[in-house]
Amino acid sequence: MTVAGPNSQAAGIIPRRLFYYNAGFLRQPHLRRILALAGYDLCLSLPGPEDGVVVWGRSPYARRGEAIAARYNVPLIRVEDAFLRSIRPGRLGDAPLGLLIDGLGVYFDSGTPSMLETILAKHSLDDSNLLARARDGIARIRTLDLSKYNLHRADAPLPAPGYVLVVDQTTGDASIRHSGANAARFAEMLATAQSEHPTARIVIKTHPETQLGLRRGHFTAADQTDRIRLLTSPVSPWALLEGAIAVYTVSSQLGFEAVLAGHRPHVFGQPFYAGWGLTSDAFPIDRRKRVLTKTQLFAAAMILAPTWVDPCRNRLCSFEEAVDQLEAEARAHREDRLGHVALGMRVWKRARLQAVFGREKSMIFQDNPTKAIAKARATGRGLLVWAGKEPADLPETLTIRRVEDGFLRSRGLGAELVPPLSLVTDDLGIYYDPTRESRLEQLIQTPLPPDAARRTEKLIAALIAARLSKYNLSGSLPDLPEGMRVLVPGQVEDDASIRLGAGDIRTNLALLQAARSAHPNATIIYKPHPDVEAGLRPGTIPDATLRGLANVIAHHADPIQLIEACDAVVTMTSLLGFEALLRGKRVTCVGAPFYAGWGLTQDLGQIPARRKQAKDGHPLPRPSLLALAHAALIAYPRYYDPVSRKPCPPEVVIHRLATGTDTPTGLGLRLLAKLQGRFATYSRFWR
Description:
Elements: H1 8-11, E1 17-20, H2 23-27, H3 29-37, E2 41-43, E3 52-56, H4 62-72, E4 76-81, E5 98-102, H5 115-122, H6 128-143, E6 163-167, H7 174-177, H8 183-196, E7 202-205, H9 208-211, E8 228-231, H10 237-242, E9 244-249, H11 253-260, E10 266-267, E11 280-281, H12 294-304, E12 307-310, E13 315-317, H13 319-336, E14 340-343, H14 350-357, E15 364-366, H15 369-379, E16 382-386, E17 400-405, E18 422-426, H16 439-444, H17 452-466, E19 485-489, H18 496-501, H19 508-518, E20 523-527, H20 530-533, H21 543-546, E21 552-553, H22 559-565, E22 568-571, H23 575-582, E23 586-589, E24 602-603, H24 625-635, E25 637-641, E26 646-648, H25 650-659, H26 667-678
Parallel strand pairs: 1-2, 1-3, 3-4, 6-7, 6-9, 7-8, 9-10, 10-11, 14-15, 14-16, 16-17, 19-20, 19-22, 20-21, 22-23, 23-24
Antiparallel strand pairs: 4-5, 5-12, 12-13, 17-18, 18-25, 25-26
Helix pairs in contact: 6-12, 17-24, 17-25
């Protein structure tokens, strides 16, 4: 029996049962998992007539499987990493996000057509939806600065533009030998680059594994001259390509990325991207006659050929979802690479903070500001400060990020010690403080990146369908009178968002009075804040005082059901106003929350002028609701999957919250939360 799939014809006949003889398949469970998700059963022993043999590419250990497949006359399937792999090389332990599972050959072996070459040669590659996805994909991985490996650094110094880029590879790599090349070809390539560009500077880019000391390259410092420079720093491939006037490669993936960046690279091997009219080939492949666009090349190599996996939800996924995951992992690596000293973090939060921000280097927690600053300086780390706990005199020479809960937080309250699934970091201010600019404000005003509108629309639709909110507390919907309904969400009156952004109206009673004055004939529905109802925070209004102001007091009600049942929301700074905007409701703000001042709400509070006009006084373009949602839900927060324990995109957290598959709060934390509730009067001692 064979496994059917979208590329089953191009990939050759692949039986369901595959026998392996490489120890790597035994030692690396992620490889077995991807193949299992793709529908294959991996087995030991010897194959039967309806089985196949799987090997890793053209590795030396593949010979065992090749011999057994030939002896038993069964199909041989070769597996290789896809072209967006991971943060680190596999030799450092990172699992791949995708595989090329090929029943014909292997993509870098020009001796025989592979699955990828068959797609490039025979697939129509003219579907408008496929090509639109490919165009967005090219733009997106360039914007996100993603490559096969992603240890490169934005701050790594680049050579001055105007150089010829020569790409080195690791010695003995199978992709060189099987692309019809050898070590001598690298010397020939360098000589040709010098001959064809006699006055230009030559920059030789070393391979990431060479930079890490894992494998030797073909070029060393001995190859440097007055106009040849060996570049060994971890620079961005895309930034490097941008400054090049020409690109020379044997068979490196950087040649493929050069095509995507608009170059016509000079190719001295026979890689998969050569022979399609997009490269200058020193050694053409006669059977490759078709002329393709870079969009078609990308569609085949990135969308059609690979099998991509979602490591958090443990399922196969699309190319776009794989990029979502790699984006989250790359952001975490880039922001946490140097490590953090954490200041002002409550003890119960530290485990989750360590899991989110301490993957690269364990966080150092310090309660004393002076000691925290000294430790950050001594270790070259940045300073993470819980928003609102920031000392007034932190030095500007340190990298300082303020931390707060994100807007898709958890199933349960932070005041009840439920750990968050999302956290925001802000190097400018913090989202709830309108007295100074925040990173979120800048993101809201930034044009949407490639493919962001489609992604954000799907994200909003998923949120609405799953009826998700910040805390996702269960509750019922009270009986509501017919007619115009106005929801007034109560807030915690000593909350920082009230102290900093509430304006003249800064109590729940004053808010209700303003709402009743503005809507004298409407049904006013007052929803007390969950922390207030739990007795954990101040803001209670006696029921006797509420009479005449609120028609309905929605105790312990589901906030999303209330939003859906109401026509409008009147709020100080509550996140329910943002959640109502996403659901198409009219929102009036008497304060200045992050979502006010952009033309999407009726604003009665004092809105910072910078949200309306540029520094030169000219009006700013008004961001769309999609831009606001993208900034608040995708670009600003970082998300953590408690099941896989990985950084993840918001789509994974939506899945966790919607299906209840996030990990439950531990018994110890629940008991501590109850104790905290019992002694809420003395909360100043732990808050």
